[in-house]
Amino acid sequence: MAKSLQCVIVTPEKAILDETAEMIILPMIDGELGIQVGRSALVGRLGKGELRLNQNGTTKKLIIDGGFAQVRNNVVTVLTSKVLS
């Protein structure tokens, strides 16, 4: 079984991020959603807010402007119109 998640963030202009993390917290339209290794498949609508990646004891924070997220086979794909770091 995988020990980490792969997080891919894509905007219409380019791929913004392709990194691993132990946990990813997504800003969904109805609240935050924490994703860990082994999470069941899911597609959901993102709200505006802070996306957090927990990596080796540190937290990377990105502000996203809504969009959609897909979780499948320990890969979290985020499609959003804009990302601010």
- The end-to-end span amounts to 31 Å
Tally the helices: 0
| Structural class based on helices, strands and sheet pairing | mainly beta
What coarse outline follows from CA principal-axis ratios? globular
Helix content class? under 10%
Beta-strand content: over 45%
Count the E strands: 8
CATH class: Mainly Beta
Overall average residue pLDDT = 96
State the low-pLDDT regions, or none.
none
CATH architecture: Sandwich
CATH homologous group name: F0F1 ATP synthase delta/epsilon subunit, N-terminal
- Biggest sheet details: 8 strands, mixed
Q: Number of folding domains?
A: 1
SSE arrangement:
Layout: E1 5-10, E2 15-21, E3 23-28, E4 31-36, E5 42-55, E6 58-72, E7 75-79, E8 83-84
Parallel strand pairs: 1-7
Antiparallel strand pairs: 1-2, 3-4, 3-5, 5-6, 6-7, 6-8
Compact summary:
By secondary structure, the protein is an all-beta fold. It is built from no helices and eight strands.
Description:
It contains no helices and eight strands. It is mainly β. Strands 1, 2, 3, 4, 5, 6, 7 and 8 form an eight-stranded mixed beta sheet that branches. Strand 3 (23-28) and strand 4 (31-36) form a beta hairpin. The radius of gyration is 12 Å and the shape is globular.
Write a concise keyword list for the protein shown above.
ATP Synthase, domain 1; 8-stranded mixed β-sheet; 85 residues; mainly beta; 0% helix
